Amino acid sequence: MELLDGKKVAASVKETIKQEVDELVKNGKRAPHLAVILVGNNGASETYVASKQRSCAETGITSTLVKLEADVSEEALLNEIRQINDNPEIDGLLVQLPLPKHINEQQVIESIHPLKDVDGFHPVSAGNLMQGYPTFIPATPFGVVMMLQHYNITTAGKRAVVVGRSNIVGRPMSVLLSSNTDYGNATVTICHSRTKDLEKICAEADILVAALGKPGFVKAHMVKEGAVVIDVGITRVEDAGSKRGFRIKGDVDFAAVAPKTSYITPVPGGVGLMTIAGLLKNTLAAYKLNSGYTS
Ligand SMILES: NC(=O)c1ccc[n+]([C@@H]2O[C@H](COP(=O)([O-])OP(=O)(O)OC[C@H]3O[C@@H](n4cnc5c(N)ncnc54)[C@H](OP(=O)(O)O)[C@@H]3O)[C@@H](O)[C@H]2O)c1
């Protein structure tokens, strides 16, 4: 069993981005610029946003954080988005999810300009991905395919199973793995809460991606000997013994499953870090699109 080390792979992706950004700035160009809108005080969201900003700083990407109160009106939020859409100095925009209940998340996603949609959640981005056109790939599945490529894990002809069908993770993950690309050409089954015989289907996978948000859901008997297991899950579970009062758990029962696998991602230290690498890559791509830059 080999650990798929998100820390190491993300660091190497970030280093490549940093070199490219340094080169741009050295040549008198402005740095790429990411804007993040954070609504309210969700602890997990604040942690993710802080981590995204830190990673921008490490790579030389400018970042701007717009913090709005939890009771901000939908119209005020849409107005912020419009201003950023119209700002030629900002290349990428993401609105950290989840949003407070009174705000229509889909409406917000659709109001981001598709050329600044670095989260890849806009229907235009999703449609392009579906049809195999260049686009912003949602950062988490993008991070997963970068990880598979880094470790030279063959996907072509393999049986892949993705558990979870969200627009953010499961569905785009299944599209990427089944696409006619270097990181695709797998035969993909997508599972969800209504899937029958889920355990049996998982146990047939050469590549198993767990993205359902149920800590420790994937047990050893659901995993084929030698499978590649990608754990996307991030759930905060209470832990009175820890300083923060919680710890992060993935969707895979790591201790029991790891010995059966050829490769497995740890949580933390796996897909989460790759997600940020995906976001940074998308931001650099948005910069190139918006500034007409060609390398
Ligand atoms: N590592 C990262 O950077 C990163 C990024 C994003 C998300 N995440 C984590 O990934 C997990 C999934 O996120 P998400 O946004 O995709 O979640 P989501 O929108 O809640 O979707 C969960 C999916 O899992 C399916 N599901 C739930 N319970 C199931 C069960 N018992 N059996 C089979 N399928 C089941 C649901 O099926 P139905 O459609 O039938 O309801 C749904 O499709 C969460 O833990 C989240 O925190 C991590």
TrEMBL record:
Record pathway: One-carbon metabolism; tetrahydrofolate interconversion
A single BP term in Gene Ontology: methionine biosynthetic process
MF (Gene Ontology): methenyltetrahydrofolate cyclohydrolase activity; methylenetetrahydrofolate dehydrogenase (NADP+) activity
Signal peptide residues on this chain, from the entry's feature table: none
Location of the Tetrahydrofolate dehydrogenase/cyclohydrolase catalytic domain: 4-119
Top-level taxon: Bacteria
InterPro entries per record: Aminoacid_DH-like_N_sf (IPR046346), NAD(P)-bd_dom_sf (IPR036291), THF_DH/CycHdrlase (IPR000672), THF_DH/CycHdrlase_cat_dom (IPR020630), THF_DH/CycHdrlase_NAD-bd_dom (IPR020631)
EC number: 1.5.1.5, 3.5.4.9
Sequence positions that bind NADP(+): 164-166, 234
UniProt catalytic activity: (6R)-5,10-methenyltetrahydrofolate + H2O = (6R)-10-formyltetrahydrofolate + H(+); (6R)-5,10-methylene-5,6,7,8-tetrahydrofolate + NADP(+) = (6R)-5,10-methenyltetrahydrofolate + NADPH
GO CC annotations, alphabetized: cytosol
Residue span(s) of domain Tetrahydrofolate dehydrogenase/cyclohydrolase NAD(P)-binding: 138-289
Key words, A-Z: Amino-acid biosynthesis, Histidine biosynthesis, Hydrolase, Methionine biosynthesis, Multifunctional enzyme, NADP, One-carbon metabolism, Oxidoreductase, Purine biosynthesis
Role this protein plays: Catalyzes the oxidation of 5,10-methylenetetrahydrofolate to 5,10-methenyltetrahydrofolate and then the hydrolysis of 5,10-methenyltetrahydrofolate to 10-formyltetrahydrofolate.
Family membership: Belongs to the tetrahydrofolate dehydrogenase/cyclohydrolase family.
Subunit (UniProt): Homodimer.
This protein's name: Bifunctional protein FolD
Species of provenance: Haoranjiania flava
High-level lineage: Bacteria, Pseudomonadati, Bacteroidota, Chitinophagia, Chitinophagales
